[in-house]
Specification:
This protein has 18 helices and 17 strands. It has 526 residues and is α+β, with helices and mostly antiparallel strands.
Length: 526
């Protein structure tokens, strides 16, 4: 059954509109009649950075989707839907066929476009299981665009939140949970691996609460000195201990009518845990050496990457902290968000990169399992950019200390074996420009619809070298040197399809599109 996407986008629009006011309706909504999850296609990387994060959702469990340059249309919630459009993507369709909730069958098109599954070139149909899709699968198209295939438990919706980045189900659910609990006074327990953004989630809760006008107070429980921890948290009267020359205000008092974030709660000294339990049960605490109780007005948020359900943590305290629990998923379970996070980290750290990040490098970033999660991604990205700025090669595996051997994410069909990326044949050796004839250059441009990047890869040369060959070519024209009347006539004859016009005019499609915009001649994006 071939899949049509108009009806689903109508449903998508309806749901998006209903959520535009950030209502607290459950995000686990599935399209009516479907008990299995939806298949999400998220643009994880695209030469046009504004496209990263756009999605297309396949709700029909028996759908067959045709993915090409012109179809389907991807979008961010509430924004215009557009096809992938890039010239490196084949006009011939790659087919993605669902088999209920069991998985998908990916069939590459009969074209010259390179198709990769988790960095591994594929030339025949490959079956991807439900379990493999649950980890997120990276589909590479034409060594230019990267698509993440993943399960979606809800439709996309507009519930953006500062610092909480992502378009997948996990990110949507996390933002909804934060808003849901923010305006209560419930204690919140944030559970997640190191680097998953627990403090960012805590700040999100505080910023969306009625306490947002006060500063959130943060304490790392692992850094407390056990002998002074009680005084640090609850304060102390003058003379309560040696050196206490005056009364001391504790963190609970400092967070009065605000939020107290207890990070690394699993490292709380054993002697302090019963004191925290009393605050949670009664709201009262007594500063060290004082004769009267004080009442705590601070709202507690705790976080840990440890297992609190063992014998080393006060279980009664844990039950109090469990009033509202938020699990922050590891990055390897939300692979669809990595491209957006890379962009966010670049902007956040004001990192400028001198050259375009290679698509193969981005593919490695997307496929890696990230044991250190977002924090590790940020550090590795910084090291990559520093290497590129110094003119050095950015060896991803060396930067993360990972083995180049990578287990296959996709199990093969009986007729197709899918090896690891490391077992591929070596990439083509870079060719010398003097080895290439004008006819070689012309044929490469024709085969790749007059897009420079695809032609350069075909010839085994760099993009700057390709520009040099185009500059010297006797038949290929510069777009800005084409007379306006001729350009207008060709665009009219080709109905504005830029690739067809580029072929007739023998000029690169990218520069032709820019020139057409400058002189205000409408052209259809290819």
């Amino acid at each position: 059954m071939k899949f049509t996407f108009t009806a689903l986008h109508a449903i998508h629009d309806k749901v998006t509109m209903s959520f535009s006011d950030h209502t607290m309706t459950s995000p686990s909504l599935l399209v009516a009649g479907n008990s299995c999850p939806m298949l999400g296609l998220t643009i994880a990387w695209h030469p046009d950075s504004n496209r990263i994060g756009e999605q297309f959702i396949v709700a029909d469990p028996q759908a067959e989707l045709e993915l090409s340059r012109f179809s389907p249309a991807f979008r961010l919630a509430g924004k215009e839907a557009l096809p992938l459009g890039h010239g490196g993507i084949s006009r011939e369709a790659l087919r993605i066929q669902r088999n209920g909730d069991q998985g998908v069958l990916i069939t590459p098109p009969a074209s010259r476009m390179v198709v990769e599954v988790n960095g591994v070139p594929v030339h025949a149909a490959v079956h991807i299981t439900r379990e493999q899709l649950s980890k997120g699968l990276i589909l590479g198209l034409g060594r230019a665009v990267l698509i993440c295939l993943h399960w979606m438990q809800c439709l996309p919706k507009m519930n953006e939140m500062e610092g909480v980045i992502g378009v997948g189900s996990s990110a949507i659910l996390l933002r909804d949970q934060i808003r849901q609990v923010a305006n209560t006074d419930f204690p919140v327990l944030l559970l997640g691996e190191t680097g998953t953004g627990k403090e960012i989630a805590a700040r999100g809760i505080h910023q969306h609460s009625q306490r947002r006008h006060s500063q959130m107070v943060t304490v790392n429980m692992a850094a407390l000195n056990e002998s002074l921890a009680a005084a640090d948290l609850f304060g102390a009267a003058r003379g309560a201990y040696t050196g206490a020359q005056q009364a001391r205000k504790g963190l609970f008092a400092e967070a009065e009518n605000a939020t107290l974030f207890l990070d690394e709660i699993g490292n709380t000294p054993a002697s302090i845990q019963p004191m925290l339990l009393r605050v949670l049960e009664t709201g009262d605490y007594r500063p060290l050496g004082a004769t009267q109780d004080l009442h705590a007005s601070a709202r507690l948020i705790a976080a840990t990457d440890q297992d609190l359900y063992g014998e080393n943590f006060n279980q009664a305290l844990l039950r109090r902290l469990e009033s509202f629990v938020i699990h922050l998923p590891p990055l390897r379970e939300r692979r669809e968000d990595i491209g957006i996070l890379i962009q966010h980290l670049l902007r956040q750290n004001k990192l400028e990169y001198p050259v375009t990040l290679p698509t193969s490098l981005i593919s490695d970033l997307l496929i890696y399992d990230w044991p250190g999660n977002i924090r590790q991604l940020s550090h590795v990205l910084r090291r990559i950019l520093l290497a590129l700025q110094a003119g050095q090669p950015a060896d991803f595996h060396q930067l993360v200390g990972a083995s180049k051997e990578r287990s296959s994410v996709a199990s093969a069909t009986p007729s197709t074996s899918l090896a690891t990326k490391s077992s591929e044949t070596a990439p083509a050796v870079r060719k010398k420009l003097t080895d290439l004839s004008e006819d070689d250059v012309l044929q490469a441009m024709i085969q790749h619809d007059w897009y420079i990047q695809g032609a350069a890869q075909e010839l085994g040369i760099s993009r700057p070298s390709m520009y040099k060959l185009l500059e010297q070519h006797s038949q290929i024209r510069k777009a800005e040197q084409i007379p306006v009347a001729e350009l207008r006539a060709v665009l009219d004859a080709t109905q504005g399809v830029i690739e067809q016009a580029a072929h007739k005019l023998k000029t690169p499609a990218e520069s032709l599109r820019r020139y057409a915009r400058i002189i205000a001649i409408s052209a259809l994006s290819g």
